Write the C-alpha cells for this entry.
Amino acid sequence: MEAFAITRLYADENGDSRFEDFLQPLDPEGEIGFLSEPEVADSVIFRKVVPSYDYDFHNAPARQYIFLLDGGIEIETSLGEKRRFETGQVLLLEDTTGKGHKTRNLQQAVRSSVFVTLKEKP
C-alpha cells in the first residue's frame, strides 16, 4: 500500500499540544499515480516569513495543512517536545484550542509555505 507521511499537531484532553505521525493511504489510479481520498478545503494561503521568525506559544487559527516549500522549522509542544521539519514535509495542525505550540525557523532565511485550511469536522 502506498501512503503519504504526515505529522499531526493537536491538543489533548488537558489542552497540551502533542505530535502524532500517521500515514495517509493512497490508492492506485493508473498512469496518474497514487491519490488520497479528497478532503474539503476552505481556503489556500501562501506565506513567507522573515529570517528571524520565532513565534512564541500560539494556537493554529484553523484546522489546516502546512506544506513546507523551502527552509525548515522547529516546533515545540506545550510539554517541551521539539521536532524539526524540513522542505517538502507536510503537517496537519489541529491545536486550535489549548496551550498551543512554538515555531521558529531553522535557518536565518526567508521561508515559504502554503496553508490549506480545512472545513471543520461535523
Notes: The mean pLDDT is 96. The domain at 2-118 is CATH 2.60.120.10 (Jelly Rolls). The CA atoms of residues 6 and 90 lie 5 Å apart.
